[in-house]
Write the structure tokens for this entry.
Amino acid sequence: MSRFEDKTCPDWKRLAVERGQAGGSAAWGEAREHLRACPHCRQEAIAVDPSLLFVAMAPVEVTEDEVHAMQQAVAQSLRRRSAGWEPGARDAVRGPRWRWLWSRSRSRARAPWLRVAATVALLVGFLALRGGEVSPRHDPLPEGVDSRLAGEASDLAPAERGLLPVELLEEGNEARLYHLAAPDLAVVMVFDETLPF
Amino acid sequence: MPKLVYSQDHCRKAWMEAEDGELLAAVCRDDELALDELIRRKTQPLLQLALRVLGDLEEAKDVVQMAFVKIWENRHRFDPRWSPNTWIYRIATNLAIDHLRSRRRRERNAEPIQYHLRRAEDGWARRSSAGLDQREIMGIFHELAAGLTEKQRLVFLLREVEGLSSRDVASIAGCRESTVRNHLFNARKYLRQELLRRYPEYAGAHQGRAQEAPEG
């Protein structure tokens, strides 16, 4: 007598076909439970379809102590988050009234105009700050620095302007050679207005 | 305060008999005892799912803990028209997938070495499928599932192992039922082929590959 004729073990060939067609029948649900408990059926089932090996994975058992530990851990985590000791506390602390301000989906929804507004605000702020610095502050240049460099030097930060000694090394008909020297910096600049830029 | 303790116990017992929907509705009304009962009820299925997605019990516990925290923090976003189970599973699976992604990034370079170490540990012993224990099955699944996409892995686990309906799986995975069927078909096919290729000893009695078409 074949094992399939035994009422307790299902016909895996037939079930494999049913599973392929519908997969959600009650018979298939019962067969899954049976497969997990019956090692003989496992071999038969895998012979029909090797992927059934993974359907045979047994349920994970969780004890009462583990559940209690999970309850405690969740409660502690929520307390820490509402106290601001863990990231992501905003929602827990502020509650539903403020949630819309921080909702990711909302911020995405208003992103197009918000991005434009933020960019414009940054640009205006930057220009305003630059505007304050546009008029050059004529700090006295170090001795020996060519006065024609005042224009270039004014682009530097005030602190740098006072520190960088600049000297004109060579002046030709079409090019000027400058040298900026500092303890940890040496820059040689060639200005040639005839170069095609 | 004996009266308060009695009152809490009374509430706990009442929630134990409540359905998932009622429980989640109470959580939405900031009822912490309802959350406790939800944790008691859903720790096992969520831990099982997270463990099967991640293959590591401690990481799975972390993910489940975070899932309950997210459920509490997002309780006011829950719509009673939704299926409570689907909403809870969706939060947990998203967290598990995120965790898997970050772990993959960390382990990308070490993966080939770990693979060879595992094979050396196994010693290429030929064993029969009847003698396989649950740990080994889980280990093989995680090795083979590394070749599946995240959606394929998720759909296979939810549909085949957890036994959820295609509709619920579609809601959890955030795709259409037809897509679920395709993912499932491809996942089964890949797992079948790879099991035969890498572990022919486990599928030694296999006499012919099952012919199937996507469900539907």
